[in-house]
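can u pls check wat happens w/ iron/sulfur cluster
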Amino acid sequence: MHHAQVETLRAPARKRASLSQTGHGWQQAMREAVTDIGTLCDLLELSDAQRDALIGIRTGFPLRVPRSYIARMRRGDVDDPLLRQVLPIAAENEPVPGFSIDAVGDHASALGDGVLHKYHGRALLVTTGACAVHCRYCFRRHFDYANQHAGARQGEAALAHIAADKSINEVILSGGDPLSLSNNRLDALGHALDAIEHVTRIRIHTRTAVVLPERIDADLIAWVRERRQQCVIVIHANHAQELDDTVAQRLLELRAAGATLLNQAVLLKNVNDDVDTLIQLSERLFALGVMPYYLHLLDRVAGSAHFEVDEARARILIGRVAGRLPGYLVPRLARENAGDAAKQVLGYDAGPSAADTR
Ligand SMILES: *Cc1c(COP(=O)(O)O)cnc(C)c1O
Ligand code: SF4
């Protein structure tokens, strides 16, 4: 992206391998993610009564949570806002009208070669099925990754599609989570995109950067630094408590490598649906060099209804946040409507208490 640096930054892969301080640490951490509820209860020092209420719940979307994310949760507290995002609960199995399996229409817009081309000028490349964490509110919890990801074989077709369409100047790597890909796979993808002249931006949407900061290793930093394109990394943090010192350090390194960092959060009931929590999130993000971008209303996917904050309340909440923060720290409240070419950005609502204080 900086022309003067291009010569020196095209370091061969073998040179970068020796720069890695973390080796395959992140893949190890990924494999060691907790998938067993008993282990999670042990690590959180839950009481027998708390355990009994959690063990034995089957939801069809397995538990998965990295240990470093568990380390950021409060011990003995089943209401912890981080725990709530990953803990399977019985309410997920209750059918709720309006909550369906394909809430955002992704199945309809899939082109079948790993490209989901939903936005003008931007191509969304679904790069992998794997996630470091399973978020209970995930709109992709029912997504058929097995047949949609641009894996080793399908990648070629996806790239050919992008190369053939000059209107695409931004490639969005999404998933799953693109940072579940190995550095070798990312390298191959990066070089292929470098060769497509009309692609001037690469955007990565990742929750892994937050839940498994080990992933931001020396090779990934080098990958960002090497790109001909501008790199935008959209992290997915929902709560300031997620952004501990390790995450802070790795984000700093990404910024130093030239990445622009943005955050996309989901508004989640009993996780971040109050003014102070949203303000703390924006403040913490900015302190780490990350601009708040979107605050999403929940996609109405089956199994996530217990997280929903209705639109009227969301507008009031964001209005109050806007009343207390500079404009650049207020994320855009947005919703995704099936079949639409772009997100719908929602306005603020003063709400009843603003009238009281006049
Ligand atoms: C909204 C969204 C996009 C694209 O929309 P922008 O308005 O360009 O940000 C891409 N990927 C994900 C995961 C999104 O949520
Ligand atoms: S990381 Fe993203 S795609 Fe993966 S489960 Fe969480 S919300 Fe869903």
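The pocket of pyridoxal-5'-phosphate (ligand 1) is lined by residues 119, 122, 124, 172, 174, 205, 343 (CB under 6 Å).
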